[in-house]
Backbone:
C-alpha cells in the first residue's frame, strides 16, 4: 500500500498522515489467544437469518466443532453476526465475517449471550484452512477486510500462517505456555488495483457504462440498497455523546460529510444535518429506532468487539462500523431493482477519546464521508460487491484506488468526492441538474416474442435525449452487464437460435443512461420446466449433530437451487449461499428446510424436510448461592452452591468478583470449597454443562480482627499544565499498614496496560511534547487503592 494513504475499511477512521491510522489495531496472535473467550476448529453449516435480540437482523451459522482449544463447548456452537435478510427486511454491514457451508476454520470467539458467540473483533478472529501454491496447508484471514496498524502503530501487513505450526502455537498459548512465533509464511503481493473509469470530475464528460447496481454493496440476493425519498430530505443526527478531541465533538465532520454527498449536481441526494438527537434514538446499527445517527463512544461488545484502548503496546481491534441498518421492499432506477433503505447509522467504538492524535480534521472529515457513503449503499471502490476480493477480479465493475469510497482513503482529500464517487452517486441517485443536457429516455421498448427453434427476430429500441446517443445490447435481464453483445451498438439487433434467451439495451449520452425493459425471445419446444425426482427426507439427529439433505431434479439445464428454512413455499428465510442440490444442517434445535429448483422456464418447490433434534439440553441454573460470612483471623469456612441442569454438571471456583476468571482456585471443582486465612477475600463459582454455564453470586469471607489496614490515599496527584518540552513532578501520599508499594501508569485510573518502568516511588518526574494522563496504585499485604487520574497538558 502507498505510504501516502491511510486505511478506512469497515468503519473508516483516519490518523494524522504521519501515523497511517486504520480501521483496526491488529493485536498480536499471542494477545488474540489470551483475550478470546474460546478457540475452536470448526466447520460451518448452513446459515440462516433471524430477528436480533434488539429487533435488528442477524445471521446465525451453526458450527460443527472438530477440536476445542480453549473454553468449554458442546459439539456445536451458534456464531451470531449482525446483518442479513429476514422477513423482507435487510441489514448490511461491510466487513462482518460471513461463512460458506463446509468451510473449515480456526475461530477465536467471544460469548455474547446464552448459546450465542461472535468472532472476536469481527474478521480478525476468523482463519480459514487453504492450500498454498506449494501444497502447504495454510491458515489465512479475510485479508481484503483487514487494514490498519500493528500495536506499535506501524502499518499492518497481513501474513499467511503455516497451519500445523500456527495450531501448535495456539494450543501452547491457550494452555498458558510461551510458544515460539515461527509459523509466518509471507503472503503473495496483491495485484495492483485496476482503474477502468474514463470519466473525469466534470458532469459533462461521458459516464462509463456501468450499472447502478454495480456501485452498491450486495444486500439481498444480487440486489443493492438505495433510498427512494430523494430529493426530499433525509435527516441525520449526531448522538448526545460527543467525540472528545474531534472538531466540534464530531459535528464538524458530520456536516462536512453531508455537504460532500449533497453537492454532486447530477444526483438528487439530499442528506440534512438536523442537530443533536434528544437521546431517545440510541440503537444505532443495533436496531431500527427511527433516526439516522452518527454515534460516538459506543459499546460494541454485543458483536464481539472490545472497547478501544490507546496506549503503548495496547490493542483493541475494531474502531467502528457503519452501514444500512434496515432495508425492506424494493424500488427500481433505470430498470434495475434495489432493496429500499429505511435507516442508516454509524457507530464508533468507545475509548477513542484516549487517542487525541487520531483527529486530523481534514482526514477525519473524509472518514465520516466514507461512512455516509456506505449508508447510501455504496461498496468499496477497490473491492468487489461482497467485499471479499479485489475489484479488478470482476470485469463488470468500475474500479478506483483513489476515491472517498476506497478501502484506503488518501490523506488530504478533506471529504472531496473523486470521479468514482461521482459516478456512483449519479448512477444510483440520478435526478440532479447540471446544465442543458437531457438524459436519455426510452420511448419504445424492445418486445418479447416467440420464435421457432432455429428461427430469428429483430429487437428494437427508440429513445429521446440530447445527442449523440449510444447503445449497448446485453444478454440477460435488464441491468445485468455481465454479457455484452459484441457489435450490438445500434438501435436494433438480430437474435435467434435454438434456446430461449433474454436481452436488453442501455442507452447513454453525456449526462446519463437508461436501461430498457427485458425482452425474452422464447424458442418454442426448447425448454422443459424442472421436476423433482427425489425429495429431501426428514431426519432425527442427536443434539449437536448434523445431517445432509439432498434433492434430485430433471428439466432443461442449467438448473438452479435455493434452500430455505421453514415450510415449503415460505421464502422469508433463505439459507445464505445454499445454492447446490444438497445442504449440511444441524445444531441443537429442530428446524424445517425445503429447496426451490428453477430454470429458464419455471420452478418447482420441494417437500418440507424436518430435522428433529433429540435429547435436548438444559443449561445450568443456580438454585442455592454461596453465602458471604465473617470468620476470625486464621479461621475457615465452607462455601457451597446448588444447581440444576442436564448432567453432568462441572464446577470451577474463582477468587474475586463474579465473572472475573483471572484467578481460578486450583483444583476447586466440586460444589463446595473450604476457605479461610488471615485476609478478607471474595469467591464465586461457575457451573457448566454441555450447553451453557451459570455464574454464582459473589460470596465475601471477611476476616475479623485483622492487624492489617488496607492503604488509603491522603494526597492525590494533581493535574497541571506545562510548556512543550517542559517537565513536572507528580506525587501521592498514603496511609496503611507498612510496607506500602507504589506503581505508576500512563492512562486513566484503573487502566494497567501501560506501567511506567521504575515508577515505583511516591513521586514521578514526567514531561515532553505531548499531553498524557497518569495514575498510581498503592498496595500492601491486605489490599490496594488507585489514585485519581492526573493529566499533564502540554501547551
Residues:
Amino acid at each position: 500500500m502507498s505510504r501516502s494513504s491511510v486505511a478506512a475499511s469497515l468503519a473508516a477512521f483516519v490518523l494524522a498522515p504521519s501515523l497511517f491510522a486504520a480501521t483496526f489495531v491488529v493485536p498480536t496472535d499471542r494477545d488474540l489467544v489470551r483475550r478470546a473467550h474460546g478457540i475452536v476448529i470448526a466447520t460451518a453449516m448452513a446459515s440462516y437469518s433471524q430477528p436480533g435480540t434488539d429487533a435488528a437482523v442477524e445471521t446465525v451459522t451453526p458450527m460443527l466443532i472438530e477440536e476445542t482449544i480453549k473454553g468449554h463447548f458442546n459439539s456445536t456452537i451458534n456464531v451470531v453476526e449482525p446483518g442479513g435478510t429476514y422477513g423482507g427486511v435487510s441489514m448490511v454491514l461491510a466487513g462482518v465475517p460471513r461463512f460458506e457451508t463446509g468451510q473449515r476454520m480456526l475461530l477465536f470467539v467471544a460469548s455474547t449471550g446464552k448459546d450465542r458467540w461472535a468472532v472476536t473483533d469481527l474478521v480478525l478472529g476468523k482463519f480459514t484452512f487453504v492450500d498454498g501454491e506449494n501444497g502447504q496447508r495454510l491458515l489465512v484471514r479475510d485479508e481484503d477486510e483487514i487494514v490498519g496498524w500493528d500495536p506499535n502503530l506501524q502499518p499492518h501487513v497481513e501474513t499467511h500462517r503455516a497451519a500445523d505450526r500456527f495450531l501448535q502455537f495456539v494450543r501452547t498459548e491457550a494452555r498458558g505456555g510461551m510458544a515460539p512465533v515461527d509459523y509466518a509464511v509471507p503472503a503473495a503481493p496483491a495485484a495492483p488495483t485496476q482503474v477502468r473509469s474514463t470519466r473525469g470530475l466534470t458532469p459533462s464528460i461521458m459516464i462509463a457504462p456501468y450499472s447502478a447496481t454495480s456501485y452498491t454493496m450486495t444486500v439481498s440476493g444480487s440486489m443493492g440498497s438505495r433510498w427512494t425519498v430523494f430529493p426530499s430530505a433525509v435527516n441525520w443526527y449526531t448522538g448526545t455523546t460527543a467525540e472528545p478531541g474531534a472538531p466540534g465533538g464530531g459535528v464538524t465532520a458530520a456536516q462536512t460529510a453531508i455537504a460532500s454527498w449533497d453537492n454532486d449536481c447530477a444526483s438528487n441526494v439530499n442528506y440534512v444535518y438536523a442537530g443533536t438527537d434528544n437521546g431517545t434514538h440510541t440503537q444505532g446499527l443495533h436496531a431500527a429506532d427511527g433516526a439516522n445517527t452518527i454515534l460516538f463512544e459506543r459499546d460494541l461488545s454485543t458483536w464481539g468487539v472490545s472497547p478501544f484502548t490507546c496506549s503503548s503496546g495496547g490493542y483493541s481491534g475494531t474502531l467502528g462500523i457503519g452501514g444500512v441498518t434496515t432495508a425492506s421492499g424494493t424500488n427500481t432506477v433505470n430498470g434495475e431493482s434495489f432493496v429500499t433503505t429505511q435507516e442508516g447509522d454509524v457507530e464508533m467504538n468507545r475509548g477513542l477519546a484516549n487517542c487525541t492524535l487520531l483527529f486530523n480534521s481534514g482526514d477525519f472529515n473524509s472518514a465520516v464521508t466514507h461512512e455516509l457513503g456506505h449508508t447510501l449503499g455504496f461498496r468499496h471502490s477497490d473491492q468487489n460487491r461482497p467485499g471479499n476480493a479485489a475489484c479488478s477480479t470482476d470485469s463488470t465493475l468500475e474500479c478506483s484506488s483513489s476515491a472517498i469510497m476506497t478501502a484506503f482513503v488518501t490523506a488530504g482529500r478533506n471529504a472531496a468526492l473523486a470521479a468514482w464517487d461521482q459516478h456512483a452517486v449519479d448512477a444510483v441517485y440520478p435526478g440532479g441538474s447540471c446544465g442543458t443536457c437531457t438524459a436519455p429516455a426510452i420511448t419504445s421498448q424492445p418486445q418479447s416474442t416467440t420464435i421457432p427453434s432455429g428461427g430469428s427476430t429483430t429487437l428494437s429500441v427508440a429513445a429521446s435525449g440530447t445527442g449523440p446517443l449510444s447503445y449497448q445490447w446485453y444478454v440477460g435481464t435488464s441491468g445485468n452487464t455481465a454479457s455484452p453483445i459484441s457489435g450490438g451498438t445500434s438501435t436494433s439487433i438480430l437474435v435467434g437460435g435454438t434456446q430461449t434467451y433474454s436481452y436488453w439495451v442501455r442507452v447513454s449520452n453525456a449526462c446519463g443512461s437508461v436501461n430498457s425493459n427485458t425482452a425474452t425471445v422464447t424458442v418454442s419446444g426448447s425448454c422443459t420446466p424442472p421436476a423433482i425426482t427425489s425429495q429431501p427426507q426428514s431426519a432425527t439427529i442427536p443434539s449437536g449433530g448434523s445431517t445432509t439433505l439432498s434433492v434430485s431434479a430433471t428439466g432443461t439445464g442449467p438448473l438452479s437451487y435455493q434452500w430455505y428454512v421453514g415450510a415449503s413455499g415460505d421464502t422469508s428465510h433463505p439459507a445464505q449461499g445454499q445454492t447446490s442440490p444438497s445442504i449440511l444442517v444441524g445444531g441443537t434445535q429442530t428446524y424445517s428446510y425445503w429447496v426451490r429448483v428453477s430454470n429458464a422456464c419455471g420452478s418447482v418447490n420441494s417437500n418440507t424436510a424436518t430435522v428433529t433434534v433429540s435429547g435436548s439440553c438444559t443449561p445450568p441454573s443456580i438454585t442455592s448461592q454461596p453465602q458471604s460470612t465473617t470468620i476470625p483471623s486464621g479461621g475457615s469456612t465452607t462455601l457451597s452452591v446448588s444447581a440444576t441442569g442436564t448432567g453432568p454438571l462441572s464446577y470451577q471456583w474463582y477468587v474475586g468478583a463474579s465473572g472475573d476468571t483471572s484467578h481460578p482456585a486450583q483444583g476447586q471443582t466440586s460444589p463446595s470449597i473450604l476457605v479461610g486465612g488471615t485476609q478478607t477475600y471474595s469467591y464465586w463459582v461457575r457451573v457448566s454443562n454441555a450447553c451453557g454455564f451459570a455464574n454464582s453470586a459473589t460470596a465475601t469471607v471477611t476476616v475479623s480482627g485483622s492487624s492489617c489496614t488496607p492503604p488509603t490515599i491522603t494526597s492525590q496527584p494533581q493535574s497541571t499544565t506545562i510548556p512543550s518540552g517542559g517537565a513536572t513532578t507528580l506525587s501521592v501520599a498514603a496511609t496503611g499498614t507498612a510496607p506500602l508499594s507504589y506503581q505508576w501508569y500512563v492512562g486513566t485510573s484503573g487502566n494497567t496496560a501501560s506501567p511506567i518502568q521504575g515508577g515505583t516511588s511516591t513521586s514521578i518526574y514526567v514531561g515532553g511534547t505531548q499531553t498524557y494522563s497518569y495514575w498510581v496504585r498503592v498496595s500492601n499485604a491486605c489490599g490496594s487503592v488507585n489514585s485519581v487520574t492526573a493529566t499533564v497538558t502540554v501547551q
User: Anything to note?
Assistant: Residues 1-22, 189-208 have pLDDT under 50 and may be disordered. Residues 361-375 form the longest helix (15 residues).
